[in-house]
Write a structure and sequence with these properties.
Layout lengths: L3 H13 L5 E3 L16 E5 H8 L6 H12 L5 E5 L5 E5 L3 E3 L12 H14 L4 H15 L12 H10 L1
Parallel strand pairs: 1-2, 2-3
Antiparallel strand pairs: 3-4, 4-5
């Protein structure tokens, strides 16, 4: 939700410092193609993946294709969140993590919750796949609650949720 110039400068600073940048392309806006190689991990939903890749995303296979197209533009790792179909990853690693089966009440904070939990897990040294699973659990908890900030779970809730599944 920042101007593209601000996003590009933040990516430059991260790259200069040797910090792998996680970028959530939400909401859809302008970003110069030259900025994509500065992104280590790009997180997009189906609509955003379509916008960036130029191809329709209507399921897991199409999400893989879109993610691979985006990765070819210089992004090391692309994650496409697919709601109840889970998350696909392409780039340095390629896999699909199915969604946890829950009844969604309010999806308002799902994407932000996913990204925050993913960043925490990666910063703590989790593998990419484990970080995606942790983030998916956090998002699954959040969609079962109403509101944005009140729906975001704490670590203990995420860990308990994962232990139950």
């Amino acid at each position: 939700e920042l101007r593209s110039e601000t996003v590009v400068r933040a990516l430059e600073v991260a790259n200069e410092a040797g910090v792998p940048a996680i970028f959530n392309f939400a909401p859809i806006g302008e970003i110069p193609a030259a900025a994509l190689p500065m992104v280590h991990t790009l997180v997009v939903n189906e609509v955003e993946a379509e916008f960036v890749s130029g191809s329709r995303v209507d399921g897991v296979d199409a999400a893989f294709a879109a993610a691979e197209t985006i990765a070819e533009r210089g992004v090391a790792q692309v994650l496409v969140t697919l709601g109840d179909q889970g998350v696909v990853a392409a780039g340095e690693e390629r896999f699909h993590v199915p969604a946890f089966s829950v009844t969604a009440r309010d999806t308002t904070a799902a994407g932000d919750t996913f990204c925050g939990a993913f960043a925490v897990a990666r910063t703590e040294g989790e593998s990419l796949e484990n970080a995606v699973r942790f983030a998916g659990a956090a998002a699954a908890i959040s969609v079962q609650r109403a509101g944005a900030q009140p729906s975001i779970p704490i670590r203990d809730e995420i860990e308990a949720f994962l232990q139950e599944r």
